[in-house]
Design goal:
This protein is α+β, with helices and mostly antiparallel strands. It is built from five helices and four strands; from the N terminus they run H-E-H-E-H-E-H-E-H. It is globular and about 40 Å long.
């Protein structure tokens, strides 16, 4: 993956350390059934108010597919971030297909609450 493959409009873009933490948490969320995959699933969780954070792929072609997600995230005060590759995001989501966006949710009494709050703070840092 080169820098030319990543759209410059994909902001904020996670660095390699944050990307690794995000992908690990996404994989765990998938195992706990706390993950919605795809742009439609992410939009549903945002509209329902159950989304904790949104992760989108920066190499989506064309980027016009997902411009509503950052706007909706800002309206709902939900942190969002871009990762470099939709293939890697798909693998973290537990599917063999590329995934352009996913949303992590949380259920009552979840064991992932502490990790999700830590990631939320990490995502919000570049936005300030």
């Amino acid at each position: 993956m080169t820098e030319a493959d990543v759209n410059l409009k994909a902001y904020p873009l996670a660095d390699s350390y944050l990307t690794k933490k995000l992908l690990d948490l996404i994989q765990q969320s998938c195992n706990y059934k706390h993950l919605w995959k795809g742009a439609n699933g992410a939009t549903k969780t945002l509209n329902r108010g159950i989304s904790e954070f949104i992760v989108m792929a920066a190499d989506v072609e064309p980027l016009k597919i997902i411009p509503h997600l950052p706007l909706l995230c800002e309206d709902k005060n939900v942190p969002y971030v871009f990762v470099h590759s939709k293939q890697v995001l798909g693998r973290a989501c537990g599917v063999s297909r590329p995934v352009i966006a996913c949303s992590a949710t949380i259920k009552e009494g979840s064991q992932l609450r502490q990790q999700i709050q830590s990631i939320q703070q990490s995502i919000e840092r570049p936005l300030v």
